[in-house]
Amino acid sequence: MKDIDNTKQVISGELCVGSWFYSAPRITPDQDGRIVVISMKCFGPLEVYEWGIDADGDFYEKYQWIENDLYDDDYEKKISKEKFVKQIENMKSLIRDTEVSGWKDDYDKILQMIEDGKLTFDSDRIAEGYAKRPWLHKNVIERITDDCGLQPGYHFRNGLDVGCGAGLSARLCD
Question: Whole-angstrom Cα distance, residue 126 to residue 94?
Answer without folding.
Answer: 30
